[in-house]
Amino acid sequence: MALSDEFQALTKSFSGFGVDEKSMISVLGKWHKDDIKSYRKESPHFVQDDRLFEKWVDPRVAFLEHEFLRFKNAVVLWTMHPWERDARLMKEALDGQAYGVIIEVACTRSSEELLGARRAYHSLFDHSIEEDVASRVNDSHRKLLVGLVSSYRYEGTKVQEAIAKSEAKILFAAKKNADKKNPIEDEEVVRIVTTRSKPHLKAIFKHCKEINEDVDDESILAKTMQCLCTPQTYFSKVLDASLCHGADENTKKALTRVIVTRADEEDMKAIKEEYHKQHGVSLSKNIDDVVNGNFKDFLLTLIARGD
Asked: What is the pTM (predicted TM-score) of this model?
């Protein structure tokens, strides 16, 4: 490979979502010091120091350190007990006011799994997730979030259709009046969403669609219902956003979180099918195109587990 081609290969390996360790090794491992000096002079990631040497641009060093850590973070998260993993994800989300992650964990886990995460939270942080949410969330999200993380839902299959139809009207009316009152401040809405079984909520969701097909907006209530009723659709959207060019760091972090937390779940197959249906390309193809190195290989291995 010509030196100019190697320059391009090395720059590319430094510049993506994760880092391409194999390209770095193949290029840097055989370069002599003059080759490395030439790269420093040509690379936009180095600047000339007053003392006549080329130095890394500090933000680029920070960027690389972060990208190298993606693989490590994915491995550590994967090897955690699922209860600890969910507890730590909720704690991090609470610290960063990323309330969507708390909703994601609380709504996509079974009652026993969520109870396990709550127990792990006690052990890890000497508080309950309920008290932390109640004391640290000071806006309209509080009642909904406390109710969701406290929930222990009935997991049988029985649904009372008449009640589901009646409660669908309550949710629809709350959404219709959202310009006057935030639906998640409505006590009846919070009661329904935080206590009803998932089969019951799916029946409500179906009746809401019969009343008005446009139920999938970007509101917190809609995202909560989507996590509870059609998690594969929710996860497909989150994964696609994480792989989009220009995504911010919080959005990118969802790629690791979703794949690691769902790889051993039955719904990974449904998530992949929904992703292909929504975006016209397979999830593995998009990851292969966007992500680099060991981080990419690990994610692809995880999503292929159920194939």
From this structure: 0.90
